[in-house]
Automatic annotation (TrEMBL):
Name this protein carries in UniProt: ABC-type glycerol-3-phosphate transport system permease component
Matching PROSITE patterns: ABC_TM1 (PS50928)
InterPro entries: BP-dep_ABC_trans_perm, MetI-like, MetI-like_sf
Localisation per UniProt entry: Cell membrane
Domain ABC transmembrane type-1 stretches: 58-253
Keyword terms of this UniProt record: Cell membrane, Membrane, Transmembrane, Transmembrane helix, Transport
Amino acid sequence: MFTVLAAALGLAYLLPLVWVILTAFKTNNAVLKNPNSIFFRPTLETFQAVIGDGFGAILTSLQITVGVTVLVLVIGVPAAYALSRHADPVWNRVATIGLALLLILQMVPQPMTVIPLFSVLANWHVIGTLSGLILADLALLLPYAIIVLRPFVLAIPNVLYEAARIDGASSVQTFFRLTIPMLTNGIFTVGAIIFITAWGEFVYAINFLPEGTVLPVSGLLAQQNSQYSANWNSLMALAVLTALPLLVVFLFTQRRLINGLSLGAVK
């Protein structure tokens, strides 16, 4: 029964991907004539036509995504540690209230935050720049990263901290020499999730970048659809090209990502 269900779910996920890849190798006429046909003459014409735009969008997305991922981890890991390891009861209550506020912030629809963030970024003179977009994505993803990292910190046994304290390690030494190495799975898990999420972010990208800027992949994909028509083969070819960096990230982090998600599911 479980095998049949797994096979059905696999087909449900696999068939749309196969349709995307097949459409990317069709000409525009072939798509308009019979979009669902699996028998056609494959061509690379569409990839040759979109590779220039796709490469520029991938470079823009890489700058944004790497910047957001690094900043989220640099701020999120110490924040999760501070919210998890303090023994003071008053601080624990403050941490609980802070985590509840972070959860509430995650429920706010993203489009509702565009106007307030636009005002803040304009006051900081970073509106219309990649730095401004990275800060906006940081504000969006940092609470989620802290919430996900906290169970990984709590999973580190207290006896290890007590042993470090007996050996004379300071708080900073304990954080860098004990906590960081023990959080490797959590850091890889959160880093991979943040990278994938920032790669596909769309709302802030189209609102905080000025006209004429090379859009990231999410904006470029949206441009393939107009009010009256859609370039399906170009859209699918760009989707295949722009998904390749995500595939590389997944292949490198697959084992740690699965282990990290398994730990997060039971904590």
